[in-house]
Amino acid sequence: MQTLSLKFSVASRALFIALSLSAVCAGSLAQTKPPGAFATVNGVAVPQSLIDTNVKVNIAQGQRDSPELRQVIQDELINREILAQESARLGLDKTNEAQAQWAQVRQTFLVELLLNDYMARNPIPEATLKTEYERQMALMKDQQQYRLSLIVTSTEEQAKAVLARLRKGEAFAKLATETSLDPSKKDGGNVGWVVPAQILPAISNVMVNLAKGALAAAPIQTPAGWNILKLEETRPFKAPTFDEAKNDIRQMLVQKQRFDYVKKLRENAKVVQ
Mind listing the pLDDT tens digit for each residue in 59-105? Predict the structure, then answer.
């Protein structure tokens, strides 16, 4: 087959180049994205900051930052913008139910913004953490520690059925993994070492009277559900180091600080019920 070759005169070549450059420039202008956006969808800019935020969330959950991860996130964000636009086009956001849900989402977002801002402006000093650590250690130094295993079910009937299977010899760890609602199920129901003051009285009052290796005689009801309790072993209280306890203490103090802040704001608010 003969190859087709194109031959231009100087004038026609200049005109061709000019037209080509015009086409490229026009295409570039049509595809220009606003500053700070990684894409536009039907003319709506999708901010680069959304990618950065989602990458950070994925890294915090154990993912590795990579071009592949960013591409998946980018595609998902574009899809979500397309879906959001279609939802708005259909007027789905105008219903009373949608408006009520949106108001709740907005309120939750504002609450988290406020509390995070408050905590950033009022960080808990290291000295406060150490003082609280010393106070807790002084309270616990003469206490006994108990290593527990736990299975939590949503109903008493389910708990009784699991308890019956345990009494027939089925392994506690196996049943905890299969049936428990508690996060400890991933460890076969193992809760670890606790002192009575750390847990609900409904459980601690039973725990302190169990023999090593024994099951509680009946399921125990708490707000989390119906609890099947097994005492694995006991020991005199073994104090964690400050570094080991610091994060738990900080979390406890943060919760108290947030509670006190909300209480103060409520006392100064005009509430009519």
Answer: 999 999 999 999 999 999 999 999 999 999 999 999 999 999 999 99
Paired tokens of 21: 């450059």
Half-sphere exposure of 3 (CA within 13 A, CB side): 3
Phi, psi angle pair for 64, to nearest 5°: -105, 135
Contact 234, 145 (CB under 8 A): yes
Q: Is 20 exposed, middle or buried (0-12, 13-18, 19+ CB in 10 A)?
A: exposed
Burial of 32 (0-12, 13-18, 19+ CB in 10 A): exposed
CATH of domain 143-236: 3.10.50.40
Cα(242)–Cα(46) distance, rounded to whole angstroms?
46
The pTM of this model reads 0.56
CB-CB neighbours of 220 under 10 Å: 20
State pLDDT tens for residues 13-65. 333 333 333 333 333 334 577 899 999 999 999 999 999 999 999 999 999 99
| Domain boundaries defined on the chain | 37-94, 95-141+240-266, 143-236
| Separation CA 245–CA 126 (nearest Å) | 12
Cβ-based neighbours of 124, under 8 Å, separated by 6 or more:
250, 253, 254, 257
